[in-house]
Input
Amino acid sequence: MTAFQVLSVLLLAAAAAHAQSFHLGSCPTASVEKDFNITEYMGTWYEIEKLPAVFERGKCVQATYSLLSDGTVSVRNAELLSNGKINSIEGVARVKDPSQPAILAVSFFKGIEDPYWVLSTDYRSYALVYSCSNYLGLFHIDFAWILARTRALTDDIISQQRDKLAAAGVDINRLTVSNQTGCDAMA
Output
């Protein structure tokens, strides 16, 4: 197998495992929420829009965050599958550097941490989260979520968050609207 073939297999495997697409080059530089207050961020957030993620297959996607006594954060992501069952996963997030509390690392599997950057939030209605990982210095895979405290968000706020992603160099044309209807089973 040639070096090009090995690289192609690695790229495809990484893309399949972590996202539906990847981008050549390094992750864009994004500014995070200044003076982020992790305590105010705790609670349930509903996914309004996202960059495609193969690990999300359902609707009514939501994340619940709880502060733990050691300063880490319990994370529970849940979605409603087409068969009516709730699919969920639990993990832990931690602030990587106390001087930058909006930059967290989240882990759902032992030994594997992924970035979780809170780019923008007002804590009571919306949050904008970005995650990006570089691979082999050749390409990156990114995720983004526009979140809300309710299952809907005004078009104005969505537009503002999309603009912030675009200003950070994120391809907002790939954002998809999340289905937050028929979510009674999630209550």
Observations:
- The mean pLDDT is 88.
